[in-house]
Specification:
single chain, about 260 residues, alpha/beta, 2-enoyl-CoA Hydratase, Chain A, domain 1, Lyase 2-enoyl-coa Hydratase, Chain  A, domain 2, 6-stranded mixed β-sheet, binds acetoacetyl-coenzyme A
């Protein structure tokens, strides 16, 4: 039995699959689910048996249909602020997890669900996925990072249209504007996510982690500082066994067998 009431978690061949599991509420994020995500991703950060994480929603209809509206309905301004801060911290933890995180978006990714998908490194959507930030229809703006991550992913103009109109877009449109990396048939979704995870696992783990950290660090600082960061981590990787293994394998025309965690 899972140690979580609202999450399912399993590890297979180095791939950790996290499923948000509140099907009766279309996997909406209540406080308990956010708390469980915090606990699980804190543990995953130091779990060397998990090389790549896939985040998805249970059932066929929904990835995550947003923050739980029934729970938010009577919140005060102070409670709303704290709720946003707590969830933002958890999404930041997911974004900055050392290992790559792939969102397998199987259905509705609305409000907090779209924000959760955006906190992941890569998004693969099923053809039936729907994306949107409908918060303005509820009298609030997005509060789990949507006003910040959406423009960084799709640009200011497109982000503002989605935020101001609150409309849903389908997977093809999400792909067209750069919100998702790939769209596949519903029955192919987990295979596609696992295939990408499996490919990443064959690459040098530390180099992958360094790529993730460099992109995340670099996007929030000026280019010169980002380049300086890159030069440091580039240099440091020459002190790893994986650099020797990878380059020796290339020169000897064979596949590398990486060893660093
Ligand atoms: N919170 C709480 N419960 C939710 C929910 C949510 N975000 N989304 C769906 N549910 C519940 C419904 O209340 C319903 O429960 P009951 O069966 O007990 O009535 C159940 O899930 C099934 O939903 P529907 O009957 O509405 O299903 P549908 O197929 O007709 O519609 C939907 C699906 C279009 C996704 C619709 O459920 C919907 O619009 N949901 C809300 C989407 C939304 O506004 N999300 C943003 C929330 S605010 C937010 O996320 C703020 C932030 O930035 C963090």
């Amino acid at each position: 039995m899972s140690e979580y009431a609202n999450l399912l978690f399993e590890v297979e061949q180095g791939i950790g699959v996290v499923s948000i599991n509140r099907p009766k509420a279309l996997n909406a994020l209540n406080g308990a689910t956010i708390h469980e995500l915090d606990d699980l991703f804190t543990k995953l950060a130091t779990d060397s048996s998990v090389k790549v994480v896939i985040l998805t929603g249970s059932g066929e209809k929904s990835f995550v249909a947003g923050a739980d509206i029934t729970e938010m309905q009577n919140m005060s301004a102070m409670e709303g602020r704290n709720w946003g801060k707590v969830a933002q911290a958890v999404f930041n933890k997911i974004e900055n997890l050392p290992q790559p995180v792939i969102a397998a978006v199987n259905g509705y990714a609305l409000g907090g669900g779209c924000e959760l998908a955006m906190a992941c490194d890569i998004r693969i959507a099923s053809e039936q996925a729907k994306f949107g930030q409908p918060e303005v229809s509820l009298g609030i703006p997005p509060g789990f990072g949507g006003t910040q991550r959406l423009p960084r992913l799709v640009g200011k103009g497109r982000a503002k249209e989605l935020l101001f109109c609150g409309d849903m877009i389908d997977a093809a449109e999400a792909y067209r504007i750069g919100l998702v990396n790939q769209v596949v048939g519903a029955e192919e979704l987990m295979n596609a996510a696992k295939a990408m995870a499996g490919k990443i696992i064959t690459r040098a783990p530390l180099a992958v982690k360094v790529c993730k950290a460099a992109v995340n660090e670099g996007l929030d600082i000026d280019l010169e500082s980002g380049m300086a960061y890159e030069a440091e981590v580039f240099g440091l990787c020459f002190a790893t066994e994986d650099q020797k293994v990878g380059m020796r394998a290339f020169v000897e025309k064979r596949k590398p067998n990486f060893c660093e965690k």
